[in-house]
C-alpha cells in the first residue's frame, strides 16, 4: 500500500474531525484554573484551516496536498499548541517534497522532519508535552518501518506509541501529575493520529458528528435509552418546565410505570419513562412539575430531581446568539479594515489587546493596528499577518502581549517578504505598554528590539481573574468561580471580592524600588469599584509612588496591575 495525495487529504480530514468532536474534552483537561485559550479549540481550528484549504483539491500528489495543508495550518495556527501542530505538519510537508506517493518508511522520515522542525521552533522545549508525544511516536514508527514499510503498520505503531507517551507525560511534568491529568496537546495529537489511522487501516473517515464513546462504561442501558430518547424532544417548547427525576422503586408498590407515563401525558408532553430493576427515570415537559413529582412519589422515593425553565433558557440562548452574531460582524468589519498596503513609512506598530480602553492606550502610544485578542481568544497567525500587511511601514514591530500568542506571532516573520517584521516578546499588557514607551526613533530596529525587550522585562504584572475550574495548587484548593490573584503568573491568593484581591495583590508586589503603579480595570468592574481600589492602594503606598487608574475594558481579568 502507498499513500497518495487523495489518501493523505482524506486522512487529514479524518484526523481533523476526530479532534474537533473531542475538543471540549481536551479543553477540560487544562490544569490551571485561569481561563485559557483552550487547547482543544486551538488545535481543532488550526487543523481545520487545512481542511478548508483542501476542500476543492483533486488529483494532486502527496507533496502538493501536504504543502497546501501545511501553509493553511501555519496561517490558521492559534495558541502554542496550534502553532506546534502546524510546525509539525510543515516539517512533514518538507519531508514529502517532490513525491507523488510514499510508503510507510518515507512517511516516517517526513514525520521526523516535522518533529525536528517543531523542536527547533520552541526556545526551551519542555518534555512531557505534545513535543514528547510526537517525538516518541515517531521513534516507534521508525522501528516499525525498518521491519515493514506498509503505511498501516507504521502509522499503527505511531498511534500506539503516541498514547504510551501520553500516559508518561505526568511523570515528566510534575504539574500534570499534581493535577492528575495527561498533557492536553499530546492528547490532541493522539486523536489526530487516530483519525488518520482509521482512514488508512479501515477506510473509515471519522465524522465530526460521530458520537464520542462514553468514558464511563458502567452506564446502564436504561440510562442510555433515557438520554437518547429524551434528547429527541429538546427543541420542542410547548410547556415551560423540563422536569426530570429518578424514583427508587418501592418494594411494596404494585403500580406500573406505564400508569405513570399515562398520567404524565395528561399534564404535559415529551414524556419518557424508563425503568430497570431498581429505578424509574422520568422526563416530561409540563406547566406543573409539582404534580409530576407528587405522582412519582407514589412509586417510591425521589433520588434526584432537576427542573429547568425552558423558555428562559431559550431566551438566554437567543441573547447569546445575538451577541455572537454581533461579535462576528464586528470581527468581519475589523478584518475588512486590514487591507494590504505598500510599505511607504519607515516604522509601524501592531499590538494584540482586548478591551476598548486598552485599544485606545496602544493607539495613543503609536500602534496603527490593534488585533482583538488575548487570554481565551488567541488570534491566528493569519490574523497577525493581515494586520502586519495593513501597516504601511518598512519595519513593523508586533507586540503579542500574551505568552500563548507569541509563537503564533513568530510564524509571521517568514511569511512577509516586502517588509521587516520584528516580534517584541511581550507576554502581558503591561509589558506591551512599557515596550512601546521605550521605542526610540533614533535607533535601528535591532537596537529597538533590544531596548523594548529589556524594558518589558522590567515591569511586574499582576492579574485578578476568576477560577475557570476546580483546582489545587500546593496546599491551596480553588473552587470554580473564586476570585484569584496572580503575581507575574504565580497564584498568590484567593478572595471573594475582586477589589480586595487587587489591593492585597498590590501590597504584595510593591517594594521600596517601586516608582509607578498602573491599575487597569476591566469588564465587570464598575467605576466606583475601580476608584475604591485606587484609593485603597494609594493609602497603602503613600505619596512617593504614582498610582494611575485606566479603564481597560478587558474581558477575563477584573484588574491588571503594572508595577514599575
Biggest sheet details = 6 strands, mixed
Our count of helices gives: 21
Give the strand content: 15-25%
Sequence stretches where pLDDT stays below 50 over 5 or more residues: 215-236
Spatial ordering of strands, largest sheet? 15-14-11-18-16-17
Radius of gyration: 28 Å
CA-to-CA gap between the ends?
63 Å
Helix share, percent: 40-55%
By secondary-structure content and strand pairing, the structural class works out as alpha+beta
Mean pLDDT: 87
* Basic shape: globular
Oligomer category: single chain
Number of strands: 18
Kindly describe this structure:
It is a single chain. Helix content is 51%, strand content 18%. It is an alpha+beta fold. A hairpin with a 2-residue loop joins strand 12 and strand 13. Helix 6 packs antiparallel against helix 7. Mean pLDDT is 87; it is low at 215-236.
Outline:
This protein has helices spanning 5-21, 23-27, 39-53, 62-76, 79-95, 104-121, 130-147, 151-172, 174-179, 184-202, 221-231, 257-267, 289-297, 310-337, 356-364, 381-389, 403-410, 429-437, 445-457, 498-509, 527-541, and strands at 3-4, 101-102, 241-249, 268-275, 279-286, 300-309, 345-353, 369-372, 393-399, 420-423, 460-466, 471-473, 476-478, 483-487, 490-495, 516-521, 546-551, 559-563. It is α+β, with helices and mostly antiparallel strands and 564 residues long.
